[in-house]
Specification:
By secondary structure, the chain is α+β, with helices and mostly antiparallel strands. It is built from one helix and seven strands. The chain has a five-stranded antiparallel β-sheet, with helices on one face. Strands 1-2 form a two-stranded antiparallel sheet. A hairpin with a 2-residue loop joins strand 6 and strand 7. The longest helix has 17 residues.
Length: about 100
């Protein structure tokens, strides 16, 4: 590969590892989780208590486009146990989120 096509973090224009605690990642993950639950006919009952259903971002990479693509792995957790894990790609067009791939 031509070294000029790489930057210090990887392939220019490709997906790069992202901080799972970044507020933008968390916002995209919340949107994805709410969409996932609604699409599967489940109540969107996300909470903050240990017995409440909540999400955790397990893995995330991002790609700068005209906005940002996030490739996420999300775990749905309750009582410190994973009830479900899913993969999703979210397009963030300056605060407007769209699921582009499940």
């Amino acid at each position: 590969m031509n070294p000029s096509l790489r930057n210090s973090r990887g392939l220019v224009g490709g997906f790069q590892e992202a901080d799972i605690n970044d507020p933008r990642v968390q916002k995209a993950a919340k949107f994805a989780t709410e969409q996932h639950l609604a699409d599967h006919g489940r109540a969107v009952d996300l909470g903050v208590g240990p017995n409440d259903l909540h999400f955790e971002v397990v893995d995330c990479s991002q790609q700068v486009v005209a906005g940002m693509n996030y490739r996420l792995t999300i775990a749905l957790m309750r009582n410190n146990e994973c009830e479900e894990r899913f993969h999703v790609m979210i397009y963030d067009r300056f605060g407007e989120y769209t699921v582009t791939q499940w």
